[in-house]
Design goal:
Rossmann fold; 3 domains; 20 helices; homodimer; six-stranded parallel beta sheet; alpha/beta
Chain lengths: ~550, ~550
Amino acid sequence: MRSPSTQSMDPTHRIGEYLIERLQAHGVEHVFGVPGDYVLGFMDLLTKSSLQLINTCDEQGAGFAADAYARLRGLGVVCITYCVGGLKIANTTAQAYAERSPVVVISGSPGAGERARNPLLHHTVRTFETQLRVFEQITGASTVLLDPGTALAEIDRVLNVALRQKLPVYIEIPRDLYNSPASHAHPRVTVSPEGDPEALREALAEAAEKIRAARQPVILAGEQLHRFALQKPLLALLARSGIPFATTLLSKSVLEEDHPSYIGVYSGGISRSEVVRYVEESDCLLMLGSLMTDINLGIYTANLSQRRTVYADSERVAVGYHRYENVLFEDFVRGLAALDLPQRSGVTHPRPETPSPFVPEPGRPLTVARLFQCLNACVDKQTVVLADPGDAMLGSMDLLIDSEAQFLAPAYYTSLGFAVPGALGAQFANTNLRPLVLVGDGAFQMTGMELATIARYGLDPIVVVLNNRGYGTERPMLDGSFNDVLNWHYSRLPDFLGAGIGFDVHTEDELEYALGAAIAYRDGFSILDVHLDPSDRSPALDRLTEALGRRVRV
Amino acid sequence: MRSPSTQSMDPTHRIGEYLIERLQAHGVEHVFGVPGDYVLGFMDLLTKSSLQLINTCDEQGAGFAADAYARLRGLGVVCITYCVGGLKIANTTAQAYAERSPVVVISGSPGAGERARNPLLHHTVRTFETQLRVFEQITGASTVLLDPGTALAEIDRVLNVALRQKLPVYIEIPRDLYNSPASHAHPRVTVSPEGDPEALREALAEAAEKIRAARQPVILAGEQLHRFALQKPLLALLARSGIPFATTLLSKSVLEEDHPSYIGVYSGGISRSEVVRYVEESDCLLMLGSLMTDINLGIYTANLSQRRTVYADSERVAVGYHRYENVLFEDFVRGLAALDLPQRSGVTHPRPETPSPFVPEPGRPLTVARLFQCLNACVDKQTVVLADPGDAMLGSMDLLIDSEAQFLAPAYYTSLGFAVPGALGAQFANTNLRPLVLVGDGAFQMTGMELATIARYGLDPIVVVLNNRGYGTERPMLDGSFNDVLNWHYSRLPDFLGAGIGFDVHTEDELEYALGAAIAYRDGFSILDVHLDPSDRSPALDRLTEALGRRVRV
């Protein structure tokens, strides 16, 4: 371990102020949340700071928004009240854990004083520790700031886990302690892990040998390259070596997709066949920062052999069957970029399809495939695409995203309901971007009403509801009335909320008109109710559901 | 313990079928849930059984609906997929725990076979046990049915906790085991706890002595009298003794409120002063089955002395300072009813206000007080009132509910968003009832869209949105823009959903008209957008927020 750096601190800090100051120092400008009496005092502190508090309709929306914000900004914050607020974001926090998104959960809680006097305060479940115990299961670090003597050090310790390990963390503040002065001067300790340079050298040497000897090396660029801000070394590696790269669905857009070395999205049997073939025929696959999950790898239709891989993520570095201990992911990636590798030129490899202009056939009923062709022609450098699991996500696999990190989808955890509140987080994270939200009707009914929050704060995402009257991903696995959802009149939502504009889209020309009008409208959100045949789906979904369906029936 | 009763069982039972059979045997007819691939197989079994699966928009709605169903029927069931479904109902399950509502959580999960092969299946957070660990914190018993050899016994064990202790429980079924035959004949074991008859006798004798000697005995009838179905012994006790009774807000309507011995709702300083005085001046308070919580007891403004109480709930029986071990709550209550007590006649005590006809003053802006006067005149024996925390709940404290258990509110846990999905559960629990839903605008924005589910299944609740443009309960504690919510056009919801009717209500005559029209309309839900002055509130809320506000600022 590197020796801890310390610096002297103003000993008069109050706990709440210190937490706010640290969040600001790490680039946070917005906090998403819902008030409640146990957290009102801290919310009051927030409103007096330069941080902006964004009130969502339900805590679930705040949790998803903070996750999207964290993915774009490196840290996101959700602030809620005790239990009735906190336990509503167990799922969004679990998503952040599963997909390595550094979200800070701040919860108010009963004051230290009232805990002693009263065992049955409102919002309490079993004991005062119930909420903490739940969050211990789904965060990388957690703390209850009951002791002013250690509170500042605890804040640093926990935030450090979020920043270093890219995991959600939990900070609970008893409500009588927000304004407590820290009781002594507080040394700010920042411990950075340090790898073993010898091990690193050997790992890189073995990797270099494997790469040099390879006939067809391919890089599978994972989402952790973005989380750890390693795009520059990756670009250097691509430039030096001429090796082509693919992404997974979770890491889609980790680099601009118009990069000449880009092949496309690899998700085993789900993705385009030429990408599958090129990746699986590789005799040296560099898997960098990619969670080895079932959806990422096409429900284990993937045919990847460990012998032929160089593998590195935040938990493991391995070359073939040799695992290297104490080699840091970021050191290894930077080391790869600095290797003296032969420059391969003239490598022929698959390329993503270039979007072609969408020429609508008037009156022709819209299909999923044509919808995505049209969307592909609309996506530009100011677009951040948020895709909800289902065909919204799978269909967007082949959208060409030509800006870094401008595609967001919970492609591993696959929780429905991320995309609309995610757009709230994404647009606050980068106000230069305009969200394009792709969401199924089932998912929209879970969290879509956060468009009210989007309206309240004057944001202008374009929301495309893929309305196929149900859970389309599940129908081919096992169908029943449980896969149906009520047909809301999504285009009338603006009338209900008093904001935004809505469109009903049945045909190709209606789609072209509606998208054009939505792009031109900047005074609020646009919502397109895109009516699709319940039996229509993307080819990717056909392939996925075939693989999943084999496991539903036993 | 009584010796276990056993009976021979058909050894060919399959696990999923057995679970369904046991739920039916305990009176369950409806299951609330949202599908997902890990639970599709079980949902398919459900649809083939006589149980009806009710699909909600979001899992949160299913959790609240199952809670309301459990309160009315004695057992409720919510069925969801792994993690992305289950973790969304951590909060609703915690509410069921806090308020002793027997909800069975059934979650699908990865199959035993696929767990062995694949560590990173979609929807997995940290390990396959993460969801189980979370639910261990918020349920009375939990199990994962990985072993067909013990699965049937585990189902019985866990359901027994729900039935005996009135707590939520968790049953997880790996998806490759729904259809597994139980591997051996299964003795159904029903263990009933047994109290100590000597201790019971002594406790009753001491209680009898205290009651006989008392000048002004009062019964505080708690919600557990309803959960344990002890209304008959309570009625017998009232009849034999002539002792008057109050309820708490959580137990409101445990008996018909037109009972001649009824005083009103006691919640410490929150309730009507004559009720407070009568209860607190009692020299023998019989607290039967009432959680000693802060909201129930008026945020500790309550002035109750243990010396003067006879206390019994499912966890503790005590007379004055004498605690009796091994005395069962239900035995003690039945024993009280059988005591030879002097019949007090002609006791004068406070009585709830009789609803008077509502005579609207045309054009007069509506106030909270007048709203509840009007509602009081509408409530009848077919009404089940569901009140969301906030002024919707506090204002309804003095509604006269003249049927047993027809007032439902999470008065202790006070989670916003219960009432609308609760109405779904309540009306399925008893189709003879018509829900009157009282909900604030803030709470409506969390779960109100479950009206879509209500529309889908053709139910006809009347929903009154108390629209005061924000979290009205919090404003008097500490106000800021974080207490504002966007003003939706609630009355236009029917147009958005394609179902129901809506009304805008500003004045007294508009309220009378809208309520009359809503009562007459039986083809779907009615929604009344009742516009209130943001600074207007019920006297009860004034008193509550004054007490709470003292603890927000430190």
